[in-house]
Structure formats: C-alpha cells, structure tokens
Amino acid sequence: MSDQVGTVTWISGPVVRAKGSRHVGMLELVEVGVDRLVGEVIGLKGDQMTVQVYEETSGMQTGAPIYGTGLPLSVELGPGLIQSIYDGVQRPLPLIEQAMGSFISRGARFDPINREKKWKYTPKVKVGDEVKGGDILGVAMETDTFEHRVMLNPDDSGTITWVASAGEYTVNDPIAKLKMGKEEKTVTMLQRWPVRRARPFVSRRGANVPLITGQRILDTFFPVAKGGAAGIPGPFGSGKTVTQHSIAKWADADIIVYIGCGERGNEMTEVLQEFPHLIDPRSGRPLM
Questions:
Q1: What is the pTM of this model?
Q2: What is the torsional sign of CA 78, 83, 84, 88?
Q3: pLDDT tens figures, 16-68
Q4: Which helix H or strand E contains 17, and what residues bound it?
Q5: Contact between residue 171 and residue 79 where contact means Cβ atoms under 8 Å apart
Q6: Which residues contact 229 (CB under 8 A, 6 or more apart)?
Q7: How far apart are CA 150 and CA 160, in angstroms?
Q8: Nearest to 19 by CA among 61, 59, 51, 60
Q9: What is the rounded CA–CA span in Å between residue 264 and residue 91?
Q10: Domain spans of the chain?
Q11: Domain 74-202 listed as CATH 2.40.50.100
C-alpha cells in the first residue's frame, strides 16, 4: 500500500495542490483522494506540490489524502497490448465495461495487460549469448499472423545464463536470466516504461518507400512515405476524421494503432464498430 505524502489544500478542475512530503519527485505518479485517482506531480515548491489529475475531480474536498508511489507515470508493454482498447492512462476499457457497465467509476483499476493469458513463445537466444538493450530475446505470437518480438529492456545488457524452452508462458513468467556484473536479473515478457521518456533507437531508416493508402487522390497528389508523417488540415465537418478512418481501413500496413485524442465519441464508436468486420487480406480473417 502506498504511503500518504500530502494533503489536498486547493482544487481547480483537474489541477490539485497539496502540502506534505519534500521527498516527492517531479513527474511522480501519485494517487489522489480516497478513490485514489491517477495523478502526476507537475510542480514542486518547498513542501507544496501541484498535481495534474487524470480523472474527474468533482466532489473532492480539501483535506483529502495524496499517496505517493515513488514511480514515474508509466505504461505496460508486452504481448496483448495491440489487441486491447485503452483510455489515456492505459486502463483497459473492455475489462472495465465487463465489470462496471458503460460508465467508468472513478478510481477503477485493472491490469492493462492480462496476467493470466498464456502466449506461444519461441526463444531466439541461447545460454552464453552477450545481449544489449533492444536485442530480440524471442517471439510470442500475439495473433495468428502477428509476431510480437520480445526485446531486452534498453537499460539492460549482459550475458544470458538461462533461457526458457519453447512453450506457452504468461507475461510474468521468466523467459530468460541475465548476468549483469555481479547480479543476475530475471527477464519476463512484461516491461514498464515511463511515458515521458522517449524510447531510444540506434538509427533512423530513410522514409523512401511509399505507403499505399488505398485513396487514389492521396496516393497520386499527396503521397505518404512508410515511416513518415502526414497532417490533414481542414475546418469542422470537412472530413478529416473520415479520411483518417479510410486510410486506417485500407492502407498497406500490418498494424493500425488508432489514438483518438480529442475525437468525438460517436466517431470513436464508429471505428470500433467497423474494424472487427473488416477482413485481413493476408489471412482472410476478421481484423479483430
């Protein structure tokens, strides 16, 4: 259980101020109020902290406790990630709907990635291999057609001392052991990564292969490169989101990650209703 690190003294919408511990860090994940709402420390001045709360604060009163976690706001990475639907703080909406119905209660908590489901895993390293951050340890079949590559945490490096045999494992089961200096670390398929920290990379590939969007006007006059970025400017009602949906449905891409930031609810609903009925041209099966 997290320790209390402060007491709310001021509330203005999603921003809360509190007095308490001087040991709270900037960008630390905190839990606000009796419902333990998700929040992030965005300001520190002496013993006063300013917290951005990522849930509805209606009804909260001064004097409410704030609990520290000692961790930055992070997300979970691993097999199962691309098959789910999340809100902005990585709460799995399908699980919340099963438990609570269509309306999310404040402070709802569920594991973003299923801890019980087993994935078919095949190792790609052997005992004695020297590995560094980003190296592929093995692959897990996330769907019948998608291969999830399990990579070593970017901050780790060392020598493989044990490798799990091919089989089915949960995201918390050990898949390898790594000797790092004098200590040995157990590696699983699950990683936690701070949202404010960019994932490191060795090099960037040139964006010189066209992405076929399936929209002839775009492919002819406004081509997009694989690995590139494109913007769709326009006024209200001009069809920006409809165009985005069309590209998502018909583009020559293996995976579509749809982030509906600021989208209308009915437009998000339309995406979720249409996508499960589309057929994957490679496998001949529904996309979801």
A1: 0.83
A2: positive
A3: 999 988 889 999 999 999 999 999 999 999 999 999 999 889 889 999 999 99
A4: strand 15-20
A5: yes
A6: none
A7: 15
A8: 51
A9: 19
A10: 4-72, 74-202, 210-277
A11: yes
